[in-house]
Every structure is written in C-alpha cells, then in structure tokens.
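User: Please predict the structure of the protein below. I'd like the answer in structure-token form so I can feed it into my own downstream comparison script.

Assistant: Understood. Taking the following sequence of 98 residues as input:
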Amino acid sequence: MDQRLRHVDRNRDRELREEMYRKVAKGEVTIGEAVKLMRKSSRLTQPEFAKHRGISVAALRAIERDIGNPTVDTLNKVVQIFGLQVGFVPRPRPPGPG
C-alpha cells in the first residue's frame, strides 16, 4: 500500500523535517540518518523514495545504513528536493584547551 495514502499528520511531517534540518546544521546526524529522516518526512517507502529520486533501492538502503560509498551525484539526487546539496562543511572542534 502506498504509505502516502495513510492518515496524514502534517505536524509530524513538519517536526521530522525540522528535526532533520536542525541535526544536519549541527552535524549531529550521519548522512544515512538524515536521508532516512528525509524519506520518512516524505511518507514514502524505500522503493517509492528511490524511484522518486532516480536511484536504486539497493543504493538507498546502503545510504540509510551508512555503508557503501555513494557518489556526490547520487547524494545530490536524494537531497536536492529538500533544498540541500552535498558540500564541504567545517567539522565541529572538540572542546578542549584553546
């Protein structure tokens, strides 16, 4: 069954998107976790999301499990619909002496 046809809780969808953006901005989430949050906020199964984003289900599953080695092009296909792109970001510095 197409999961989008189930009861729609717009507040839950919004909260999932906000959580994903917050965690991404703070570097608190792996790529796989962020992609999984994106997919869940879209209310799509892995096969539906993969088809929608033009990637294979196997590639999506590997990304969500943080295994494999997706290309930047593949990651951009996944995240572009959320207004994101893959790029270089500074790594947070661990707290310690100055």
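That's the full token string. The helical segments are 10-26, 31-42, 46-53, 57-64, 72-79.
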